[in-house]
Amino acid sequence: MAKVAKIPIIDIAADGEEAQLQVAKELVEAAVEHGFIYIKNTGRDIHTEAVEGAFNLSKKLFNAPLEEKQACSIQKNNRGWSAMHYETLDPKNQRVGDFKEAFNFGEFKDGKPQQPIPPTIEPDLDQIRAFSDLCYDMCLKINTLLGIGLEINPPSFFTTAHLRENGASGTILRLLHYPPLTSISTAESSDVRAGAHSDYGSITMLFRLKGQAGLEILTQDNKTWAPVPVCPPGTENDPSPPILVNIGDLLSYWTNGLLRSTVHRVVFPPAGTSAIEGETGTEPRYSIAYFCHPVGTSPLTAVPSERVKAFRPKDASSSLEGNPHTERKVLTADEHLFSR
Ligand SMILES: O=C(O)CCC(=O)C(=O)O
Ligand SMILES: [Fe+2]
After folding, report:
1. What is the pLDDT of residue 328?
2. Of the residues 85, 206, 225, 313, which has the maximum number of CB atoms within 10 A of its CB?
3. Domains located in the chain, CATH noted
4. Is the Cα torsion angle 120, 124, 126, 129 positive or negative in sign?
5. Closest by alpha carbon to 23, among 31, 13, 36, 33?
6. Beta bridge mates, 233
7. Quick check: ipTM above 0.85?
8. What Å distances lie between residue 83 and 111, 168, 172, 177, CA to CA?
9. Distance 289 CA to ligand 1 centre (A)
10. Which uninterrupted H or E stretch holds 335?
11. 73: DSSP letter
12. What pTM does this model have?
């Protein structure tokens, strides 16, 4: 049976400068070592009702008539609905596309979505906006903690680059729906719910539901897949499962590879056996991801942190070999995104 992933659990709801510094250091170590971090959800930053409300809305949206969803099909701007098998995250290893459907909300402007919305959820737009606002606030908080933990001068370096008032960004709130194994008669062992990939942006915040297995990360040492429990030991009695935060490619690039962007995927858990007690793949699975991106025009200039400057990637074949801070062309966040 696969060993579960070792991912640190951090409570960022610390008050006082000293406690905050401690949390910031832990967060950076987790981002360097694992690229994934559980943020304990005691309901202070994102309350239970907000998370539950978002999942209820997600079910409502995916249950909407097909024509409503089709009328909002995903556009070049990465906003809208993607149908079952539309996306293939790991084309080299997948026979068919991902067994999932998704709906991407881009940033709202003046309180309004900038994309077609299925009429079924039109009355719920304020709720969606409020939920993305909570995610946005938490994204800023994590960016500030990373700045403190990396001893960046000023510590607001990453946070400033994410401020909405400074312009539009590729930030996306994504609702995901994965059908249960039982409703798919043709699934083969190579079929996955979401193929192996790393995320593009700065950080991703992932919300999952208790009991719903599927997410795995690629371990660094022996390159095996390790399942990621929804509620790791110590969080079982929290009001909501922890929020899983991971470092995306942009932030890894920006920090010269110091912060790790980790490959992950979503699978059909093997029938009958359960790698994680209390989790199965027999129900439809829902998850919600908030992909943070800096403002598109933000230049990804050298990070003013001694630790980042001194870091040399271990992988000699890496294109980041030698600290490129002094040599490489400064990309903007949008240029980095479009290069993907
Ligand atoms: O659904 C999940 O657990 C993960 C989804 C994911 O990795 C993604 O959408 O990038
Ligand atoms: Fe992902």
Report:
1. 75
2. 206
3. 9-339 (2.60.120.330)
4. negative
5. 13
6. none
7. yes
8. 27, 26, 17, 10
9. 7
10. helix 333-338
11. B
12. 0.94
